[in-house]
Amino acid sequence: MRVLVTGGSGFVGQRLCQQLIERGHEVQVVSRSPHQVRSRLPSDCDIRDSAQAFIESPPDALINLAGEPIAAKRWSEEQKAKLINSRVAATQQLVALCEQLKANGQPLPKVIVSGSAMGYYGDQGKRVVTEETMPNDEFAHRLCKQWEAAAKPIEALGVRLAILRTGLVLEAGGGTLQKMLPPFKLGLGGRFGSGEQFMPWIHRDDLVAAILFLIDQEGLSGAFNGSAPHPVTNATFTKTLASHLNRPAIFPVPAFVLKAGFGEMSRLLLTGADMRPARLEAAGFTFQYPTLNKALKAIL
């Protein structure tokens, strides 16, 4: 199968491309800087600067992971627009590719797995969150809503659409742990604010497996929560991480400090959702790392 990936050079995308190659698939990657990302990807990947560059070799499946990192900078109005536009533009490019393929009478991809995030639900307090939960209207929700909406037109072309709302991605060398590990290794870690906010998380290998599962299962469409079945609060997360590092977690960061330092972006750290992968589990997906203890043991 020929699979086109946006965001292939990212933390999840790199592992995904590697898995696709190992499974014998032909991998196409869209990157604005093909030469710069070449060293991060398997040598067999065909890397081009736009989705339309693959018009002569149409993909059988699309995986859409592209987007500006959400926690890289404070959320100025300019940065908010950049976060939204980077996701929407990449998604629209895939829809345009499919429209062009149909106009040319060429075969269309059978499926697209398109990214979204736990931010779709906004702050949900302590309630259990499934794919049916009504969102709380705030910036993270509006970002994900527009991202998901950009993919919807592809269904009218006859392409199956599965949307994956991912939690915090855990693995060595990147993701959520990249910024958390240094202070925790020094014994300087602690909860954020009250620590009562939930942190839905997922091991990178399970996330990649979920993407491949959605590609393979022809009857699956709509939104899916991409997180482990046992989310934890921030207090539990920090305590568990410190325990695996044999360090204390006795330096909490007060909410007012985070708000002063990060502004509106501090909501990523101070709010959350008890998000459960209800539809993935109902479809028969099995997590290799269902608990935080098991995930951190494998990573650390």
Automatic annotation (TrEMBL):
Q: Domain named NAD-dependent epimerase/dehydratase: which ranges?
A: 3-218
Q: Name one Pfam family in it.
A: DUF1731
| Segments forming domain DUF1731 | 253-299
Its family remark reads: Belongs to the NAD(P)-dependent epimerase/dehydratase family. SDR39U1 subfamily.
Matching NCBIfam families: yfcH
Q: What is this protein called?
A: TIGR01777 family oxidoreductase
Please give the organism: Vreelandella neptunia
